[in-house]
Design goal:
Length: 363
């Protein structure tokens, strides 16, 4: 599959055993030098295989500490330290081996180093294979905001080896499935049917089912990105559930809920708001809840946030434009819209109901 961006087009390779295949890298490496960026969880599992595949090249590596809390400028600098200390030139290829954190950081380092060098994404989490490795958004967090320092920089190739998903913790697999469900809800109703029918195979990590889920997710993302690379319009649909989800992540403190978990509960909130506005049938909200819950994902927001706190947290999200909150809402399963044109009273009522329901739960 190809992400069609003219001169910056690139392939997404999906399959078993790809990370140890030289053919998955050689066509996309221009010079002789490569810098593999990974972390201290993923490197012990997969770095050897990648090094074997790159054996004919001049291999350098930098291993970062694992965790979203290290996705910052200080840790990013360790990549620049390696690039400079080892005198890597403009034709170096940076190879990101890991989940979304490593991919976003290595990609951003590649965007900045000598004003831009090539990079290859080798995503090893389901979330990274279906979402973060495709589309060219790179960056790090700042104390005052997530992903606020970054750049668009497309990779030369994405190598998604579904075998790597075998070592992923269950909770991380489920978090990735939330983003998979997202593509169906936004624009692919047949995919939603398929996900409902494939629940057990996916949870059992059946290789064919996982490959198909990655493939269909990437095809959806590639189409959206090809139509709107810099998020002037349509690409914002990919943020379904994310304004609510980011409020959950920030409100509870990063790391309490995984991103995909917060997005799952956030998508249910978006569906419920859509139903309140009369845009989506109540049955469809139930169907979305069952699908996500079936993957072991949370479908209710955490009980700790008041309506005021929700609104304050949602206002910081970068999807606010001209003072009006824009949300991705559903007109149907498989039919999302980006809009600021909804009744704010309906949003407030939803948030108040959420807070009241949790008040009862904790009383
Ligand atoms: N650039 C984008 O378009 C985009 C899109 C979505 C998310 N993101 C970013 O992605 C990040 C989240 O990515 P993530 O969910 O992959 O988190 P992550 O990179 O933190 O990986 C999750 C955990 O799994 C471990 N891990 C990775 N691969 C493994 C494997 N094969 N076996 C065992 N353990 C493994 C990691 O070391 C980590 O502990 C966030 O920082 C988010 O902002 C970016
Ligand atoms: Zn997401």
């Amino acid at each position: 599959m190809e992400v069609d961006l003219g001169a910056r087009s690139y392939p997404i390779l999906i399959g078993c055993g790809l990370i140890s295949s030289p053919d998955c890298y050689a066509p996309y490496v221009r010079g002789r030098q490569v810098l593999v960026v990974s972390n201290d969880t993923v490197a012990p599992l997969y770095l050897d295989a990648v090094e074997r595949a790159l054996a004919s090249l001049d291999i350098h590596k930098v291993i970062l500490p694992d965790g979203e809390r290290y996705k910052d400028l200080a840790t990013l600098n360790r990549i620049f330290d390696a690039l400079l200390a080892e005198r890597l030139g403009r034709d170096v290829t940076v190879i990101a081996l890991g989940g979304g954190v490593v991919g976003d950081m290595a990609g951003f380092a590649a965007a900045c180093y000598q004003r831009g060098v090539d990079f290859i994404q080798v995503p090893t989490t389901l979330l990274a294979q279906v979402d973060s490795s495709v589309g060219g958004k790179t960056g790090v967090n700042h104390a005052l905001g997530k992903n606020m320092i970054g750049a668009f920089h497309q990779p030369r190739a994405v190598v998604a080896d579904t075998d790597t998903l075998s070592t992923l913790p269950d909770r991380e697999l489920a978090a990735g499935l939330a983003e998979v469900v997202k593509y169906g809800l936004i624009r692919d109703p047949d995919f939603v049917d398929w996900l409902e029918a494939s629940r057990e195979r996916l949870l059992a990590r059946d290789a064919d089912a996982l490959a198909e889920a990655v493939e269909r997710s990437c095809r959806n993302k590639a189409e959206v990105v090809a139509a709107d690379e810099r998020e002037a319009g349509q690409r914002a649909l990919l943020n379904l559930g994310h304004t609510f989800g980011h409020a959950i992540e920030a409100g509870l403190g990063y790391g309490e809920w995984l991103h995909g978990e917060a997005v799952a509960a956030g998508m249910v909130m978006a569906a419920e708001l859509s139903a309140r506005l009369g845009w989506l049938a109540a049955d469809d909200v139930g169907r979305i809840r069952r699908l996500l819950a079936g993957f072991g994902l949370p479908v209710d927001p955490p009980p700790d946030l008041t309506a005021e706190r929700w609104l304050a947290l949602m206002a910081v999200d970068k999807k606010v434009q001209g003072g009006r909150l824009r949300l991705v809402l559903l007109r149907a399963i498989g039919g999302a819209v980006v809009t600021a044109d909804f009744d704010p009273a309906a949003l407030r009522a939803l948030l108040e109901q959420t807070a009241a329901a949790s008040g009862r739960a904790t009383a």
